[in-house]
Amino acid sequence: MTSNLMTFALIALVILVALPIVRSRMNFIDPQEARQLVEEGALLLDVRTPAEFNERHIPGALNIPLQELQARQGELPEQARPIVVYCRSGNRSSQARNYLRSQGFEQVHDLGPLTRWP
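User: That's the sequence. What structure does it adopt?
Assistant: C-alpha cells below.
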C-alpha cells in the first residue's frame, strides 16, 4: 500500500511540474489580453464540438468545430480581424491557430482551455 501511495505521489508531482511547461510551449495568450482583444472586436472562436459548446461556452463565441474549420472557413471574418480561439484543453485550439495562420490569418491568438477565460 505504501508503495502505491509513493508511486501516486510521484506521478502527481511530475504532472504538477510538467503541466505549466507544456502549456507554456503551446503559446497561449494571456487571458486578460484575450479578453481585451475580444472587447476591442476580435472574434472569439470555440473549436469544440456542438455538444461541448451547448454544455458551456463563452458568451458571444462562434462555434466551428476543429474538424469543420476548413469547410467553414468562409464564415470567419476578413483576415485583418483578430481571432481568439479556445477549446477544452488547448490541443484543438493550437491546431486551429496553426491552420488559420497557414491560411493567411496573421492575428490568431490561442487562449487554450475555456477554463482560462477571466
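Residues 21-25 have pLDDT under 50 and may be disordered.
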